[in-house]
C-alpha cells in the first residue's frame, strides 16, 4: 500500500540529503495507465520484472491506496496540462510482500506516442533511512552517555559554553544546564590570578598542539565555592567550527589533603611557623642567590620560670603569642619566620637594610613585652624577649647556614648577657 506522507517538499533539501547510490527506477503514466516501466522500478515494488508488474495491475491506481485515487488523478491531470509544476513526493510504501519501504519520487512531463504523459522517477530511500536510523540511534546513545556521565563534560569556544552535561552543572554547584549556558565566559569561574595560564592552555589546545595531559585547576563554582578539578581538554569540531571539549573530575578533597600533608611537613603544629627542616630548605634556595639575608634569633626570657610557675599550657600560650607577633611583623617586609626549637625562633629577611632590620626587631620586642598574660582576675604578667641580629655579608668566606646561625647566636648571647629584653647585633649598611 502507498501512503502520501508529504507533498510540499523542498526539492533542494531533499536532493542534498538523498543517497544516490540507492536503487532508482522509472515509470511512465498516460491516462493513469502504466505505459512503460523499467526493471529497477519493478524490483522496488516487489516484482521480478516489468512484465510481472504490468501483468498484475490494470492501472497505476492499483499501486495507490483507494483513499488517494482522486488526489493522484488530480495531480496527474494538473501536471500534464501545465496547471501545476512537477512535484516531488516522499512515500511510505508496502510492496506486494508486505515490506515497508520509503521512496522519493520526482514527476516529469514527457510524451508517449505523441501525447503528454507523466514520467515518475522513484528512488528507494530505505537504505538511507536505515542508515539514518542507525546514526540517530548512535547519536542518542552517545548523547545519553554524555548527559548521564558521572564526569562533568563541557564544550566551549573562546570560553563561551556551547554544551554542558548535568554532572558539570552539579560539580559547579549550579541549578540547571540553562543557567550554565547563559554564562558569557567560563573564565568567570576562574580565579583572576589563573586566567592568563588558562587562556594560554586554551590557545595551545585549539591550535592543535598534542593534548591528553590532565591538569589540576582551581575553580570558583556557580555557587561561589572554591573547588579543584582535574581536567582533560582536547580540540574538537563543533557544528563545523573548532571548539574545546573539557572533561573534569572533582579532586578538591585530594588537593586539600595534599596541601594539609605538605603544611604538616613544613610547619610547626603549635605556632604555624616554618619548622627546622623547612627553614633549612628555604635557606638552601636563598643562599645560592646573590640575595643577602638578615638573620634574627629570638629567645623568650626566663621561660623556664614561666613553665614552673604557671604550667606548660600557659607556657604554650606565651610561645604562640610571640609566634603571632613575629610572623605578622616579618611577613610585612617580605621575610619568613620559623620555630628553631622550644621557646626560640628564627627570622630571615632578604635584602633588609639596617633600618628595616632594626625596626622589625624593635617592634617584635616591644609588642611582645606589652602583651599581658592573664591567669585569673588577680594574676597577670608580661614577658620579654631577647633578639640577636646578624647579616650574611658579615660572615667570613663562603656563607653557610651554620655559619650564619652561629654569628646570630653570638648576638643573641650578648643580648641576654646585657640584661635581656633587648636587641643586639649589626646589619651591614648597603
From TrEMBL:
Keywords linked to the UniProt accession: Nucleotidyltransferase, Transferase
Mind telling me which Gene3D superfamilies this protein's record contains?
A: 3.30.70.270, PAS domain
Q: Which reaction does it catalyse?
A: 2 GTP = 3',3'-c-di-GMP + 2 diphosphate
Nucleotidyltransferase: is it a keyword of this entry? yes
Q: Which InterPro entries match?
A: Diguanylate_Cyclase, GGDEF_dom, Nucleotide_cyclase, PAS, PAS-like_dom_sf, Rev_trsase/Diguanyl_cyclase
Q: Which domain of life is it from?
A: Bacteria
SUPFAM superfamilies tied to this protein:
Nucleotide cyclase, PYP-like sensor domain (PAS domain)
Molecular function in Gene Ontology: diguanylate cyclase activity
What is a single Pfam family found in this protein's UniProt entry? GGDEF
- The reply to whether Lipid biosynthesis figures as a keyword in the UniProt entry is no
Q: Which CDD domains match?
A: GGDEF
Q: Which residues form the GGDEF domain?
A: 291-428
Q: List the EC numbers from the record.
A: 2.7.7.65
Could you tell me what this protein is called?
A: diguanylate cyclase
Lineage, highest ranks first? Bacteria, Pseudomonadati, Pseudomonadota, Gammaproteobacteria, Vibrionales
Amino acid at each position: 500500500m502507498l501512503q502520501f506522507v508529504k507533498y510540499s517538499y523542498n526539492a533542494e533539501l531533499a536532493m542534498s540529503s538523498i543517497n544516490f547510490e540507492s536503487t532508482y527506477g522509472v515509470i511512465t503514466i498516460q491516462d493513469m495507465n502504466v505505459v512503460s516501466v523499467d526493471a529497477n522500478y519493478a524490483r522496488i515494488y516487489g516484482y521480478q520484472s516489468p512484465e510481472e508488474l504490468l501483468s498484475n495491475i490494470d492501472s497505476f491506481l492499483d499501486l495507490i491506496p483507494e483513499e488517494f485515487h482522486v488526489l493522484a488523478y488530480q495531480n496527474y491531470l494538473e501536471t500534464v496540462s501545465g496547471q501545476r509544476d512537477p512535484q516531488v513526493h516522499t512515500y511510505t510504501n508496502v510492496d506486494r510482500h508486505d515490506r515497508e519501504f520509503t521512496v522519493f519520487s520526482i514527476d516529469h512531463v514527457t510524451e508517449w506516442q505523441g501525447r503528454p504523459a507523466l514520467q515518475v522517477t522513484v528512488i528507494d530511500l530505505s537504505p538511507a533511512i536505515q542508515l539514518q536510523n542507525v546514526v540517530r540511534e548512535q547519536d542518542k546513545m552517545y548523547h545519553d552517555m554524555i548527559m548521564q556521565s558521572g564526569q562533568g563534560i563541557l564544550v566551549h569556544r573562546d570560553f563561551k559554553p556551547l554544551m554542558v552535561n548535568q554532572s558539570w552543572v552539579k560539580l559547579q554547584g549550579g541549578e540547571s544546564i540553562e543557567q550554565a549556558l547563559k554564562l558569557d565566559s567560563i573564565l568567570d569561574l576562574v580565579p583572576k590570578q589563573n586566567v592568563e595560564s588558562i587562556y594560554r592552555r586554551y590557545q595551545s589546545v585549539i591550535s592543535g598542539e598534542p593534548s591528553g595531559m590532565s591538569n589540576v585547576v582551581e575553580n570558583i563554582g556557580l555557587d561561589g565555592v572554591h573547588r579543584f578539578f582535574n581536567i582533560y581538554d582536547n580540540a574538537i569540531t563543533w557544528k563545523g567550527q573548532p571548539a574545546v571539549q573539557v572533561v573534569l573530575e572533582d579532586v578538591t578533597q585530594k588537593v586539600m589533603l595534599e596541601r594539609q600533608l605538605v603544611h604538616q611537613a613544613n610547619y610547626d603544629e603549635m605556632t604555624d611557623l616554618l619548622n627546622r627542616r623547612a627553614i633549612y630548605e628555604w635557606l638552601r634556595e636563598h643562599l645560592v642567590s646573590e640575595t643577602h639575608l638578615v638573620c634574627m634569633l629570638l629567645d623568650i626570657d626566663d621561660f623556664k620560670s614561666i613553665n614552673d610557675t604557671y604550667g606548660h599550657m600557659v607556657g604554650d600560650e606565651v610561645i604562640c603569642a610571640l609566634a603571632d607577633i613575629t610572623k605578622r611583623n616579618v611577613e610585612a617586609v617580605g621575610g619568613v619566620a620559623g620555630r628553631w626549637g622550644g621557646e626560640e625562633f628564627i627570622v630571615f629577611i632578604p635584602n633588609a637594610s639596617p633600618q628595616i632590620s632594626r625596626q622589625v626587631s624593635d617592634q617584635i620586642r616591644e609588642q611582645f613585652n606589652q602583651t599581658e598574660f592573664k591567669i585569673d582576675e588577680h594574676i597577670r604578667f608580661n614577658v620579654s624577649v631577647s633578639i640577636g641580629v646578624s647579616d650574611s655579608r658579615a660572615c667570613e668566606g663562603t656563607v653557610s647556614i651554620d655559619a650564619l646561625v652561629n654569628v646570630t647566636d653570638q648576638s643573641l648571647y650578648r643580648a641576654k648577657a646585657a640584661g635581656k629584653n633587648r636587641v643586639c647585633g649589626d646589619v651591614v649598611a648597603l
